[in-house]
Q: What sequence folds into this?
């Protein structure tokens, strides 16, 4: 009897048919979210891809982001007073964060990583790739004392989404892990809430036509050069020629020689199965694959007006120059 609900659910899923757009293709349009505490790579010490519901609940409750959400719900201490001068004022409090409170659920399983191949849930970096990632970490630390705007990461300059949420490989973020898909017979647009990125993907009748439609290899646009086609009820999007600065910053490291193949399949009334494969001989010793669910949201996207009124970048540079001047003058 305990197996009956699972069997009933499997039978219902097998009978379910996705809604169709006017051209007969599965309708992917709507607002979707991949918010969860599951990250691209598996946490240290975790050897399994899947967790039971009880394990997932217990581990999510101890996740640092979830604990921070809980801690920040406590009332402020009115007697605490102002922080000490020169101390760390801290960053966003949890009111501004929305990382999700559960592990991502894919194919009925709670997942410990997006990566499913390699089986260890880690990026299969080559020796050369590890050196490039180490160099990227040095660049990130240099952003604490930037020599100019280019010292800061692309998202700090409001160029692309942070933490890889813009794609290709649309990863979850600590907030704004939301996407709107706008679908027509000739193209599909992925509107990303973070930094209001938009990927507009032209569609072709088959893989060969889509691959032939890629632009010149000399062009490396932000978010790459994407074309798409349908394979049955699955939308396939192939992206090449990703901008080297985007690929260097990670967390999904890519060179302009890399290729990302994404697949979108409507599998339930409120869910899209999202999978992608990464091939890049510059960073990786083998191709690797990742999976996650996109879950329907009833809420609209909000405008992320990163540039409007954004004084952070010039103020950071002014502060660093002022500190340098003070050191030189002995103050």
A:
């Amino acid at each position: 009897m305990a197996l009956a609900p699972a069997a009933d659910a499997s039978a219902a899923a097998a009978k379910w048919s996705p809604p169709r757009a006017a051209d007969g293709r599965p309708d992917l349009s709507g607002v979707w979210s991949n918010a969860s505490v599951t990250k691209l790579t598996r946490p240290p010490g975790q050897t399994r891809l899947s967790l039971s519901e009880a394990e997932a609940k217990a581990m999510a409750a101890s996740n640092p982001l979830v604990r921070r959400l809980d801690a920040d719900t406590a009332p402020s201490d009115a007697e605490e007073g102002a922080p000490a001068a020169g101390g760390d004022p801290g960053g966003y409090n949890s009111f501004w964060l929305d990382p999700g409170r559960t592990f991502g659920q894919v194919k009925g399983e709670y997942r410990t990583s997006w990566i499913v191949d390699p089986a260890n849930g880690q990026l299969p970096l080559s020796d050369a790739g590890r050196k490039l990632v180490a160099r990227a970490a040095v660049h990130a630390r240099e952003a604490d004392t930037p020599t100019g705007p280019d010292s800061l990461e692309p998202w700090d300059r409001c160029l692309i989404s942070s933490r890889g949420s813009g794609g290709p490989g649309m990863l979850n973020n600590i907030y704004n892990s939301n996407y709107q898909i706008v679908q027509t017979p000739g193209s599909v647009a992925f509107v990303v809430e973070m930094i209001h990125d938009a990927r507009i993907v032209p569609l072709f009748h088959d893989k060969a036509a889509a691959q032939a439609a890629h632009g010149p290899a000399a062009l490396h646009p932000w978010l790459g050069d994407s074309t798409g086609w349908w394979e049955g009820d699955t939308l396939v999007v192939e992206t090449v020629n990703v901008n080297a600065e985007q690929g260097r910053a990670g967390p999904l490291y890519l060179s302009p020689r890399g290729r990302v193949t994404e697949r979108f399949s409507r599998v339930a009334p409120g869910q899209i199965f999202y999978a992608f494969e990464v091939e890049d001989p510059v960073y990786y010793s083998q191709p690797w694959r990742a999976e996650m669910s996109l879950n329907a949201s009833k809420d609209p996207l909000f405008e992320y007006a990163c540039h409007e009124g954004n004084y952070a970048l010039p103020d950071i540079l002014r502060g660093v120059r002022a500190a340098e001047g003070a050191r030189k003058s002995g103050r």
